[in-house]
Structures are given as C-alpha cells and as structure tokens.
UniProtKB/TrEMBL annotation:
The chain crosses the membrane at residues 1103-1126. Residues 1199-1219 have a biased composition (Basic and acidic residues). PROSITE patterns: IG_LIKE. Residues 1199-1226 are annotated as: Disordered. It comes from Mugilogobius chulae. InterPro entries: Ig-like_dom (IPR007110), Ig-like_dom_sf (IPR036179), Ig-like_fold (IPR013783), Ig_sub (IPR003599), Ig_V-set (IPR013106). This is Ig-like domain-containing protein. Residues 206-300, 491-585, 783-877 form the Ig-like domain.
C-alpha cells in the first residue's frame, strides 16, 4: 500500500507539473570549474506544447540586465564576447543544451550563463529562459579527490589521469556523471601489498599457544609459547598472560612478505591449586580498542572567533554507560590533553574548549573558542575508551593519522552576493548575501565543518540604485565586503492607444490618446502621429515611485477616405535609444448629413384613439435622384431598426396592416398614414429612410438624425374647438360666429355643429365637435388643458432626491390654478409664465424623496381651477441599494473571520456611517463607530475593514465565539437618513478545528545533502490574520503567498527549500499550520533518501540474498562430497599396501582409525587395548576466544610426584588452533 500511495502521488505530481509548465530547462544553478581545465555544464530541456521550430538550435547568453551578450552561437560566432570566443561548444543531441568551455580562465569566475532554445521562434512569453541560470566558480589546484583512486571533476570530455605508486594489474578506468555537473572518475586495479605505507587493510590471525608438555608438574618450570601473526608491522601487539608473576620474554620476526610474528614465552611454574584452571594469553594494540571515531582531517576558523570539530564515535561491542571523551594534542611523545573534564589541559587551550553535543548520543565534537594564531597547524584527536590511552600500545600506529588539523586565518572570506532574478526599476527585486563560517547554532549547516549564514532582502528598485554592497564582520574584528553593479533595467511598456469610440464619425472630432509608460525619467519619449495635421497635446505625469506616463491626445477628425487605414502613434525614447509604435484600425462610417438627401417632417403629430393620423413628409436629393426611390419608415429604438412601413418585408406587429404611404413618392412625398390608432402607439417615434443603400451601411451612434423623428401622440380627450364672434355684437344686428378645430385625419374629419340663441341681455352660443368616438363642447369662457407631468420620477432609490415637474396651460390670467401633490410634505416650487396672448403656463417642481414603503404608490399632481380641476399620475418604482455579501461564510472558533461586503455607491451618495446589526433587530449593533452603541458581547472584537466611500463595507470579527452565527446585516447612514441594502446579510458557520494543510511538490526521492523543495498550503477565512507555518526541518528559503479562492475563503502557501538530511530510506517532513490564536493542524510528507552504499545494498538485498544463499549451499555440498571421496580413496590405498610390521609403531591416525586389515595381524595381547580405553587417554581441548582480545587456553593437569611415573605412558598434550589442525606430543 505505501508503494501504491507513492506511485499515485508521483503520477499526480507529474500531472500537475505537466499541466503547469509547458517548458522546462534542467541544469545546475552553481558549478565549480578548474582553472586551465575544461568545464561541462549539463543541460537538458523539455516541453509539452509550443514546440520549437529548430530544436537543435541552442544559443547560450551571459546574464545581463540589458542586452543579450553571446556566449555561444554557431550562427554568429564572431559576435560571441571575447572571454568566451573560440572556447565554447554545445551538444544538442536528444533535447540537450549541454555547454562545454575549454580552457577555463579566471575571467569566467562568477559569470552567470543561461541557454535559449530556438531564440528566433521561441519567445520569452513561452518560457523565460533567463530565469534559469548557472553561476561559474573558478578555482585553482587539482580535482576533488575522495581517496587515492577516486576523483570528482567537471570536465567529462578530458578527465584527469589517475595513477598509483604501486604496480597495477588488470586495472580499469570508468566515469559516472551526476546531476550537479560533476563527473566521478574511478580507477580499479588488482595489487599485491608489499609495504605497510600504503593505505590497505591489515589483517590478524588467531593467537596460538604451544606448550612443551601436555601436563604440568607442580613446582616444575615449563615453557609455554603464545604466537600472534599479522600482516602490518605497525600493528605489533603487546602480549600478556593472566599469570603476570611469571618470567616472560617476547620477540618479533618477519617470516616473509607482509607476514609478521610476535612470540611471548612464559616460564610457567604450576601449583596444585592451578589444576583445572586456564592459562590465557592476551594480545592488545590500538586496533583492538573496540571503538572507532570519525572526524574531518582539517577545519578552518577565523582568529578571535570559535570553531567546532565535528566528531562521532561508535562501539563495536556494548558501549559503556557513561563514556568519557578526552581530546589530545598530537605530539611525537606523550599525551597532552586539550580537553579533559577531570584534569588540566594545555595552557593555550585552557578555558577555551568544551564538548559540543551529547556524548550519550555518540557525539564527541569539540568546540574551541577564542581562536589564536598559536592554535594554527595544531593536530588534535579524541579518546573515548574506558581505559586510559597509556594502557594501549601505540608505537607506529595509524591512529595518529586520523588527527584533525586546526587552521586559523586572519583574512575574512568575502561573502557571496547575488541578485535573484532580473533587476528592473519599479519592480521588487531580491538580493541574497551568504557567507560560510565554522560555527553556528542558528544557521544552515552545509557540511560537517561549515555553516552558512544567509541574508535576503527585498526592495523596490529605484532609478538611483546603482550598486549593492554586503559586508560580513567577525567577532575578531575581521571584515570583508562584496559589491556588485546592479545595472537596473528600465522597463518600457508597449504603447497603448485608447479612443472614446470603436467607430469614427465622418467629420466629427474624436479624442484619441496614446500612452507611453516607463520607469526611468531619463527615458522620457517624444510622441508623434502619422496624421501630423491634427491638433495634439502632450502631458507627462508621475504616477508612483518609479512609474512615469507620457500621453499624447489627438483631436482626430476622420474623412470617408480614412476607412480601412491605420492610426499610428510613434514613441522615440532618447535615453534608451529605442523606438516603439502602436496602431489601431480606422472604421469610419459616413455621416448621415452627407447621405445625399434630406427630408422634412413634424416633430410630433396628435391623433384621436380610434381615428387615423397622417405624418406629412417630403424629401429632396441634393444630387440626382434615383429612378424609383424606395421609402421605408422605422420605429426609433436605441438599438436596431424595426420598420413600421416597408413594402417588401414585415413590420412591427402593432403597425401591421395599419400603415401606408400618403401621396406620390415620385413627387418627393414620403407622408405616412396610420389608421386605427391605439393607445399603444402613443409616444412612439418614427422616421423615414429614402436612400438607395440600406440604413445599416451608415453610422448612427449619437447622430442628430434621430432628433428629426416624429413622435405620435394618441389622445382619448377630444380637443375643444376654437369658437369666436366676428365683428361687434349689437342687438338687432346680424352677427357672425366661427367654430374651428384642428385634426390629423383628412380622410375622416370631425363633424362640427353650432347651436345657441341671441337676445338683448345675454350671449349663449356653443359649438359641439363630434369625433369618431369623442365629443367636446366649447363655450366662450376661460378654458384649460390637461395637466401633464413633464418630468417623471422614473426608477427611484430609497432616500435619494429627484426632481419631478407638472405643467398646465390655460386661458385667462385670472384663471391662475393651484397645483397640489398627494405628497404634501415635499418641497414644492411653482412658476407661472405667459406663453402668448391670453395663454399662460404654470409649472410645479417637486423635490421628491421616496422610501421603500412608497413603492407602487401613485404620485399625483392636480391643477385646481375655479371651475374644475385636472390631474396626472404615475406609479412609483422605489428600490433599495444593492449590496454584495456572501450568504454564508465559514469561521474557525476562537480565531477570526472576515465577511466580505461591497455595495453600490452612487457618486452623489457619500455615506457617513457603516453599521452591522443582527438580522431582525436593527438596534442590536454588532459594529458601530460609536463604541458605546455596540453590544457588550461584541465590543472590541469587531472592526470595519473597507472604505465606505469606495463601496467597501467588509467586517472583521475577532475571537469569534461558537454561537456567533448571526445572521449579521449591513446598513448605513448619511446624516440622520438611514439606508438599507439588498443581499446584505451573512450567516456564519462554525468549525471546531481548522482545515488540514495540503503538502505538494514534494520529491519522491532525493540525494542526501541535495536541495529539495516542498510546498504546503491551507485554506482559511481570516485574511487579516493568515496562518503561519512551522516546518520540522530548517528551511533554506521560505516564500509565503496568499491567494483569494473565493469572496470569503483564502489560501496561504509556504514554499520552502531545504537540505536533504543524511541517512537512507524513508524520511518525513512535517508542515504545521498555526492559525490565529494558536490552533494548529499538521500534514506529514514522505520522501526517500538515496545514494549511499547502505541504501544500494538494501535495494539489492532481494536479489543478492538468494544468490549468496545458493552459492553457500553449493560450497558446503562440494566440501562434503570431497571429504567422502578422500576417505574412500585413503581406505582403498591402505588395503592394497603391505601390512605394517608388528614391531613398527603406528601413527596416531592409524591408531584412532582401525582398519579391517588390522584384524589379520592382531597385536600382542598385553599391548592391545579396547577402543574406549584408547579414547579415555585423550584429553579434551578447551578453547576460549575473547570478544575483545585474541586469546587461547590450555587445560592444566597437575599430578603429584608419586603418580608421575605411573602415569607417564599415558601423558599427552593436544593443541588445536582455529584452523582445525591438531598436533600431538608424547
């Protein structure tokens, strides 16, 4: 299951990588080169989309903030910069971009290079190649050798030559390349070791004891020898006995090439009490001390500072409970401690040394403070044995070869200073400064003997920034400084052209603006246009710390011939020696006024419902008129063209079968007749089209042509006739009365009737007007017209004022009306003016402020005259302001939550107070700018995040309680006026525990010591207090970003890089998200550390173990079969030979193995014994071998003098060594 889980994660990670990156370039970010040698920079690229046209075309550049200096280009080899010309070549086989440099010179030191694949076709929009660079570090000396037969280097094509100072036999040389650009060259050989000065493995054989007798006589001196054989003279042992009071002598001889023997002879005098005990020989030297340690060969520190010598030790046997660590100064004689917790140390190290780490964990590291020049070149080594060092033999021992040399320097190492990414004015840039030193508990550990302190700073680059400097200071007063030139790039944005319309009107002036944005004032451009005869104005402004804008505004007047051409703006940047341009296409539509014809029609016509109306119209051509002009009438709309009369196509449904032309078109008459007028026709605006081209071929946006429409007004009230008396009315004389009326339907005019009488005292005459559905009477009085609402309220917003006006026209000045509104508490202003002789108009202007309760009510204005009144009404449509608040948000209890809120903010509405309340109780304030107004439960826990004037009303609730679910609603005030909003309430859903973080981009396998990257992200609902991240490993870099996933959910991500720890197998990395007020959630990622010998052995164990077992079984079977064959052959040879003579003494082998032929010549009766008797005379051998020292014991048999003579015939001794050979003496 873990393996399946790992495969799934690998597939998912790979899929995401493929989805996110179309291109990638793989190469080391830093590489070391040997001066005078060659350098191979491994490089490969891959892509899944936007393939290159020439994948074998690879160009290398020197990284610069400006320009592209060539390092390698096979097309333009002469343009390569001097320090690389003729020294570079590229391998492009199989998507490779590997670069080789030969020879390497010191001018290449700290050069940053990057490749570009097919630069003519693959642009930076596809992949920013300059973001993946490699930095060269040129060193002097030789390759890095890890042993006498293994070296690392960076010149794969010309590897170093390896040689040994010993004869080689069957030697071979092979190379292996790693991903960091280094190549390992290994020499393998078969050699015969002749001298102990070579670094080889020394061996020992088991000790052997050879006594001169099998039994020891009490009080009698017997010589016993103990022999130690070994291959290296430097490993001469010290031989001792468990009977230390005996006389011993020791001598050492060489018995051949690489073979040494040390013998100790003891004159052993036994006592009666020694019977049954063991005589033991011990061999002791440094190699048998039972423990080992690991420490570097040298460490370097600064004078006045401190240094740590890393050291670890292991025991081959059980480790003592409280091991003691002592450090000694290497000297040719004696032991001078530099650290000892129980006794004094060398004076120059007194009070300066201490252990660094836990001894119980196998750590023997030494810390030396206050380094002096007198410490330089000293060699020190540790001792971790329970026995003192003086109890071991040390002559010529290699233990001293493992000392650590202390090197003290007075010169501070320059820090490494680098700028990460491109340096652009106005953009944020990051600079990194790092230095290696010899001790730290807080900084990154690079190796066993070096730590790194790294400082990164991010700043916004300004035009005045020329260089950056980093200074490192040591406790001893040493300082070192590194400085680099920034050469900041001044980005220049592409030109942009903006215009107020997509289409240009012929002959109409339109403002077109060309904008150039740049970051450096010295690059101020000169702007010009390809239409140089137009009026232009230029302005330069500074919109930020490093942001300049120059604009050129042209008043462009287009002509019909400009259609299809381009309007181009040019910018010449003198400071950057650069020229840019931008163009827009010209879409010019002909002016309606230049269409070649014109028409004349009234602005409005009035007709009676049920009657007809004729819209008089005439047209003329300024040029030759078409033979058969076609007339179409359209209904005016904001978009589109809907015909109300067209002889060739359908018309709007409400005008269908009701419209026709009235008059002859050939005579220039375009009049339209509409029959069967309905109220739905009222307020419609119509206009004619008499052009040979369709109306859609002309530009119409905002054209005055629409101002020439004719509005249709349909009335239900018959218009009163005009009644007048002609002449002077005299009693008894004839008088003339005239009655007239205007109408719009010539085919069905109204009918007039006149009635009345004349007498001496009064004049009573009436005129009756009969329409097709209406009747009107007029008398010689002061008539008035219907009042009309000339400015209607339209759509109103609650709490916002709007002007509404009503107008009424009447006769007789004395007939002044009183205009009243049904909303009497509003401000009302009345104005009366004379329109013509005896005609007056009164207008009432009402300032109306509506509330939501007035929605759908009627707003009525009434003109009250002496003899009647007239009214006009409109239905009110009042809405409230709109807010945008999510219906529900999630919150982590005890943390904080942000409720996003925005609202419509009209320009004339400046709210003065934002308030959050509980739903259903508008006086339960959750937030109010007056603290005393807020509920005690929410005091000091809420605040408004946004700016009300910008329409932002977001609320933050801190330390949110489990029952703070709301709903919470937003309202506002302007002065004493309150405003409510739609969609302004949010419900809070509580969570007891935070979201679990998600770990991504973790590598499945990594080499120990390499740099890996991993990301950890978590979602939350409090943008003002995002969670923080804690890692189980020390990050090298840590970049935290925050992204809004939705209006109420954010995601915080931590991207770190870290050094893969030492060790093999599965390793864990833990990411902990710490939320506001300390709630935590963790995620554990796994990866495999690979690359060491142990790791390779474990991976190969499933294959090696069965093969080894099979080989071992085969060897055992072969040995058994060989032994059986040897026994059978020996028996056959003995049976064919002559029988032994009786008087001849037989060998021990013959006596112990009775053959069949022995039965043919039985021995003399007094001499022959049974098998068990012969076996009883043998004595068992006791062999004991110590785990720590090589030793052998012999069983002592001691008898009194009285029994000695009787037992002598049966005395024998048998000594068996570890090889299985047996020797006997008698």
């Amino acid at each position: 299951m873990p393996r399946l889980h790992f495969i799934l994660r690998l597939l998912i990670t790979g899929g995401l990588s493929i989805y996110c990156w179309a291109w990638r370039v793989d190469m080391p970010r830093h590489i070391v080169a040997l001066k005078g040698s060659c350098l191979t920079i491994p490089c490969s690229f891959d892509y899944y989309q936007n393939p290159p046209v020439r994948p074998n075309r690879v160009v290398w550049y020197q990284y610069q903030s400006r320009g592209y200096p060539l390092v390698y280009d096979d097309w333009h080899s002469k343009s390569v910069i001097d320090i690389f010309r003729g020294r570079t070549r590229v391998s492009t086989y199989g998507r490779s971009c590997t670069l080789e440099i030969y020879p390497v010179s010191y001018s290449h030191h700290r050069q940053k290079l990057y490749p570009w694949v097919d630069p003519e076709n693959v642009g930076k929009g596809t992949y920013a190649f300059y973001d993946t660079t490699v930095t060269l570090e040129v060193v002097e000396g030789g390759p890095v050798c890890e042993g006498p037969v293994q070296c690392r280097h960076t010149c794969k094509s010309q590897p170093p030559t390896l040689s040994l100072n010993i004869p080689l036999k069957e030697h071979s040389l092979y190379h292996s390349t790693s991903t960091d650009g280094k190549t390992k060259t290994i020499l393998t050989t078969v050699m015969f070791v002749e001298r102990d000065q070579q670094t080889v493995q020394c061996s020992f054989t088991p000790l052997s004891i050879t006594p001169t007798t099998e039994e020891f006589l009490e009080g009698v001196s017997t010589q016993v020898r103990c022999t130690a054989s070994y291959t290296c003279a430097q490993n001469i042992p010290t031989l001792t006995w468990n009977y230390g009071n005996m006389v011993t002598s020791t001598h050492t001889v060489s018995s051949g090439k690489a073979q040494w023997t040390t013998t100790s002879t003891v004159k052993f005098i036994s006592a009666a009490r020694d019977h049954g005990k063991y005589l033991t020989c011990y061999a002791r030297n440094m190699m048998s001390r039972g423990w080992s340690f690991s420490a570097p060969s040298s460490v370097t520190g600064m004078a006045g500072s401190c240094i740590v010598i890393p050291c670890s030790f292991t025991y081959t046997q059980s480790r003592p409970a409280n091991p003691k660590v002592i450090w000694y100064l290497y000297q040719s004689k004696g032991y001078s401690p530099v650290y000892d917790s129980t006794q004094g140390v060398v004076s120059k190290y007194r009070s300066r040394t201490s252990l660094f780490g836990s001894v119980n964990e196998g750590n023997c590291s030494l810390k030396i403070e206050g380094l002096k020049k007198s410490h330089s070149q000293d060699k020190v080594y540790p001792w971790v044995d329970k026995d003192p060092i003086t109890s071991f033999h040390t002559i010529g021992h290699s233990f001293y070869d493992k000392t650590t040399q202390i090197i003290v320097s007075d010169h501070a190492k320059e820090p490494e200073l680098s700028v990460i990414g491109m340096v652009r004015v106005g953009a944020q840039s990051r600079v990194s400064c790092s230095v290696q030193h010899s001790y730290s508990t807080r900084h990154t550990m690079l190796s066993d003997v070096a730590w790194e302190q790294k400082v990164e700073r991010v700043w916004t680059v300004s035009e005045d920034d020329q260089r950056v400097r980093c200074t490192v200071s040591y406790p001893g007063g040493q300082k070192a400084t590194s400085e680099i030139e920034l050469n900041a790039e001044c980005p220049i944005a592409p030109l942009s052209i903006t215009n107020t319309t997509e289409e240009f009107l012929e002959g109409v002036s339109t403002n077109v603006i060309c904008t150039a944005s740049y970051t450096c004032a010295r690059n101020k451009p000169t702007l010009s246009w390809n239409y140089g005869n137009m009026v232009t104005t230029t302005q330069t402004t500074r919109s930020g710390n490093a942001q300049w804008t120059t604009t050129s505004t042209m008043k462009f007047i287009s002509a019909a011939t400009d259609n299809g051409k381009f309007l181009t703006c040019y910018a010449h940047f003198t400071g950057a020696q650069m020229r840019k341009d931008a163009s827009i296409p010209l879409r010019v539509k002909r002016n309606m006024m230049s269409r070649g014809w014109s028409f004349s029609a009234p602005s409005s016509v009035t007709g009676m419902a049920g009657s007809c109306v004729v819209i008089p119209c005439s047209f003329t051509y300024t040029q030759s008129r078409p033979a058969n002009p076609k007339v179409i009438w359209y209904l005016y709309q904001s978009k589109g063209y809907s015909p109300v009369y067209d002889s060739t196509q359908g018309v709007v449904s409400k005008y269908r079968s009701r419209t026709s032309l009235f008059g002859s078109v050939n005579e220039g008459n375009c009049s339209l007749k509409i029959e069967g007028l309905e109220k739905s026709h009222s307020q419609d605006k119509v206009y004619p089209w008499v052009d040979k081209d369709p109306i859609t071929s002309f530009h119409t946006i905002g054209h005055s042509f629409y101002d020439k429409t004719t509005q249709i007004i349909v009335s239900d009230h018959a218009k009163e006739p005009e009644l007048s008396i002609i002449g002077v009315v005299r009693v008894g004389a004839q008088s003339r009365v005239s009655c007239s009326v205007q109408h719009s339907c010539i085919s069905a005019p109204p009918r007039l009737t006149l009635s009345g009488s004349l007498d001496k005292t009064a004049l009573d005459t009436q005129c009756c007007l009969m329409w097709l559905g209406a009747e009107s009477r007029a008398s010689l009085d002061c008539p008035y017209e219907d009042i009309t609402m000339i400015e209607k309220p339209g759509n109103l917003t609650e709490g916002m004022a709007k002007y509404v006006a009503c107008s009424v026209t009447y006769k007789c000045k004395k007939n002044l009306p009183d205009i009243v509104w049904n909303f009497g508490n509003m401000q009302n202003q009345i104005e009366t003016k004379k329109m013509s002789k005896d005609t007056y108009q009164t207008v009432s202007n009402l300032t109306f402020i509506g509330s939501l309760s007035d929605d759908r009510k009627a707003l009525t204005c009434t003109a009250v005259f002496k003899d009647g009144e007239t009214s006009d009404s409109v239905a009110l449509q009042i809405t409230i302001l709109q807010a945008d608040v999510p219906f529900r948000v999630s919150a982590l209890s005890r943390s904080c939550v942000v409720i996003p809120c925005t609202y419509e903010n009209p320009q004339d509405l400046l709210l003065t107070r934002g308030i959050w309340t509980k739903q259903g109780d508008m006086n339960s304030y959750v937030y109010h700018n007056g603290r005393s107004e807020i509920l005690d439960h929410f005091k000091d826990r809420t605040r408004l995040l946004g700016d009300l004037h910008n329409g932002d009303c977001s609320l933050e609730i801190n330390d949110i309680k489990p029952f703070d679910n709301g709903p919470f609603c937003f309202i506002a005030q302007k002065g004493d006026t309150g405003y409510r909003f739609n969609n302004s309430c949010a419900f809070v859903l509580m969570k007891a525990s935070p979201d679990k973080p998600v770990m991504t981009k973790i590598v499945p396998e990594a080499d120990a010591g390499s740099v890996a990257r991993v990301s950890c992200s978590v979602t939350h609902t409090c943008s003002t207090h995002p969670p923080k991240f804690a890692w189980s490993i020390a990050p090298l870099t840590n970049e935290v970003t925050q992204t809004a996933l939705s209006r109420s959910v954010w995601e915080t991500t931590s991207n770190i890089s870290f050094t893969v720890p030492a060790g093999d197998g599965l390793q864990n990395v833990t990411c902990t998200a710490i939320f506001w007020r300390d709630k935590q959630e963790s995620e554990i990622g796994h990866f495999i550390v690979k690359g060491s010998l142990v790791h390779q052995m474990l991976r190969s164990a499933p294959i090696v173990a069965p093969v080894t077992s099979f080989a071992l079984v085969a060897v055992i079977i072969a040995v058994v079969l060989g032994f059986i064959f040897y026994k059978n052959r020996r028996k056959a040879e003995d049976s064919q030979g002559p029988p032994p003579r009786p008087e001849k003494r037989r060998s021990l082998f013959e006596r112990l193995n009775r053959n069949k032929e022995a039965g043919e010549r039985p021995p003399r009766p007094e001499k022959r014994r049974s098998f068990w008797q012969r076996l009883s005379s043998r004595r068992e051998e006791g062999v004991y071998r110590g785990k720590r020292e090589n030793q052998i014991t012999v069983l002592l048999q001691t008898h009194s003098h009285e029994n000695h003579a009787a037992l002598r015939p049966r005395m024998s001794a048998e000594v068996r060594d570890n090889s299985g050979e047996t020797a006997s003496c008698k």
